[in-house]
Amino acid sequence: MKLGTKLFAALLALFAAETASAQSRYPDRPVKILVGFTPGTAPDLVARMLADRFAEVWGTPFVVENIPGAGSNIATERVAKATADGYTLLMGGNSSLVINPSLYETLPFDPLKDFAPISQVFIAANVLTVPPEVPAKTVAELVALAKAQPGKLSYGHAGVGTSQHLGGELFKYKAHVDIAAVAYRGTTALMPDLLANRVNMSFANIVNVVPLAREGKLRALAITSIKRSSLAPDLPTMAESGFPGFEAVPWFGLLAPTGTPQDVLDKLHTETVKALAMPQLRKRFDELGLEPVGNTPEEFAAVIRKETPEWAKLIRDAGIKLGN
């Protein structure tokens, strides 16, 4: 072996050893978890729970950064284009990963190619909610009210492509009603207008709605999951309210950019699953009406592949268009 070849081989071995050592030390500097929604929403709250747990385990800060807008596409794109070293993660949901590909003509990222799934973290539910000034006390009464005033009522949603947006459009499609859509930068942003009856209804996240409903500031009519929630067991599902098969729920999971070292992904997956099994976290999830998941990266990737064509068909059949 020539001297130059030996030197090259030695340098290559040294580089490989240093890379492996850096991976084993992960994380040795602050890690960002990007969330495409405003503070106080379910993905934000859960991201902060995991961040606190990771920081406790590894002794390194995990910082949650909220970047709402464009149906969470902005945050998703930033992670897709981030350095694949495990120091920029995404708390990503079905809005940007499986729904938006059918709503936007082009996206600056590919959900299947640009991300390494770590674990699906939780499934939530939305609640069809109205202010007390709206006289409807059931979904049927709300449908009747909307039909009596075509084009007069409005619903607020957390951004184009979110499950709240799709829930509203699915409701319009199945109930055959004319209701205007009003987009906001997250559930937290729409709440003041919903409380003031400036928008007349919303498929808002259960985390934000139930406390206000208990105080009498809002009226919850039905939940968008297939089964009832332990957080509000008396609240009927949309299916029970006359819309069989109606389901519009958000889920979220932890992802890294494609190319992130496997050692890093394995560490993140292991600690995510451990965190989701902790009694104190599960208790907090129950209080928020969230269902923890904690599946494998392969199972998470399979969910994305399965749901993408399913939502594409619904969006096509319902004639849902960007800007609704």
Brief digest:
The chain is of the alpha/beta class and 324 residues long.
Tell me what the structure shows.
The strands form 2 sheets. A 6-stranded mixed β-sheet has the order 2-1-3-10-4-11, sandwiched between helices. A 5-stranded mixed β-sheet has the order 7-6-8-5-9. It contains 11 helices and 11 strands. Helix 4 runs parallel beside helix 11. With 324 residues, it is α/β, with parallel strands linked by helices. The longest helix has 22 residues. About 3% of the residues have low confidence. The radius of gyration is 22 Å and the shape is globular. The protein starts with a helix and ends in a 6-residue tail after the last helix. It has 2 domains: 164 residues, D-Maltodextrin-Binding Protein, domain 2, CATH 3.40.190; 98 residues, Periplasmic binding protein-like II (D-Maltodextrin-Binding Protein, domain 2, 3-Layer(aba) Sandwich), CATH 3.40.190.
- Broad CATH class of the largest domain: Alpha Beta
Provide the CATH topology of the largest domain: D-Maltodextrin-Binding Protein, domain 2
What is the CATH superfamily classification of the largest domain?
Bordetella uptake gene, domain 1
Strand arrangement, largest sheet? Answer: 2-1-3-10-4-11
| Major beta-sheet overview | 6 strands, mixed
Mean pLDDT: 90
Name the beta content range. 15-25%
Helix segment count?
Answer: 11
Name the structural class.
alpha/beta
What CATH architecture of the largest domain do you see?
3-Layer(aba) Sandwich
Q: Write down the overall geometry.
A: globular
Secondary-structure element series = HEHEHEHEEHEHEHEHEEHHEH
Number of strands: 11
Q: List the uncertain runs.
A: 14-22
The helicity comes to 40-55%
Q: What is the assembly state of the chains in this entry?
A: single chain
- Count of discrete structural domains: 2
Instruction: State the distance separating the first and last CA atoms.
Output: 67 Å
Radius of gyration from the CA trace?
22 Å
